[in-house]
Specification:
The protein is mainly α. It has helices spanning 4-7, 25-34, 50-73, 81-98, 101-105, 111-114, 119-150, 157-167, 173-176, 185-208, 224-239. 57% of the residues lie in helices and 0% in strands. The relative contact order is 0.08.
Length: 265
């Protein structure tokens, strides 16, 4: 859009618009008026079928909103054991299927590991401690709701608020305070548990000293930007140069980046 040929009017900005070469504001206003109300994907360098993805996204958003409206209208969200059990049962079951507390209780991070001089290893240990904290918050929340539905625990203001959020198809604020993920609570739970399971594998690779020897998926992390900073520190120490002198370089071709300080994604 901003190359010389386009700005000089030698090439059209799109099928409908050419940048005017005069200094007259009316010419520019006329060019703007030619732009259609409907955004044409080609104007933004996008493939024509990208519109299908946009429509699918918008449709999912509308469906989610309709589900939330339906949930809100059900008895105005007043506590009703039968209604709450029917509507909250699926998400409680989802959590039970995806989260096994004993599996994460067995993952113990020592103070010695947290104080390791290796920045990348320290990051993984802290990230895993963070995800264990997130999982525990969600587990406590859902466990309390299950106990309330079974009649073995009293309804509290906190549990009522969290249950109301779930009934409305929203992620409870207590969960979002730990991590801002998908807006749909089902998807939020699936993503969190997927990341948690992946980080356990990261821990094993760190303990074996093979983390950076294999491909790394940054989507497994809650704080990928912190990982890159840790890698930057590790690289600076290995190269024995100031960290400010390092620049992040990426390539789609193997061999273009030094293997001894690079990672594969």
């Amino acid at each position: 859009m901003f190359k010389d040929g386009t700005l000089k009017g030698q090439e059209a900005l799109s099928d409908m618009v050419t940048v005017p070469q005069s200094g007259n504001a009316r010419d520019f206003q006329g060019a703007i008026n030619k732009v259609p109300e409907y955004d044409v994907p080609s104007q933004f360098g996008l493939p024509a079928n990208i519109d299908r993805s946009v429509q699918r996204f918008n449709s999912n958003a509308v469906l989610t909103s309709l589900k939330q409206l339906a949930a809100v209208s059900a008895e105005e969200l007043r506590f009703d054991k039968a209604i709450w059990t029917a509507k909250l049962g699926p998400i409680c079951q989802l959590w039970s299927n995806l989260y096994k507390q004993e599996h994460y209780d067995a993952v113990v991070i020592t103070q010695e590991q947290l104080n390791t001089p290796d920045p990348v290893a320290a990051f993984v240990y802290v990230e895993l401690e963070n995800v264990k904290d997130i999982l525990q918050v969600v587990h406590d929340s859902i466990s309390n709701i299950v106990k309330i539905l079974k009649g073995s625990e009293m309804l509290t203001a906190k549990s009522q608020k969290e249950a109301t959020n779930l009934l409305q198809g929203e992620v409870p604020a207590t969960w979002e305070a730990k991590w801002e993920g998908p807006e749909n609570p089902d998807q939020w739970i699936k993503v969190v548990t997927k990341k948690a399971a992946a980080l356990v594998q990261w821990l094993q690779r760190v303990n074996n000293g093979t983390l950076l020897d294999q491909e790394i998926d940054l989507s497994h992390l809650f704080h990928p930007e912190t990982f890159l900073n840790a890698l930057r520190q590790k690289s600076a120490r290995k190269l024995k140069i100031a960290i400010d002198e390092l620049k992040l370089v990426s390539s789609f071709e193997k061999g273009k980046v030094a293997a001894d300080i690079g990672i594969q994604l």
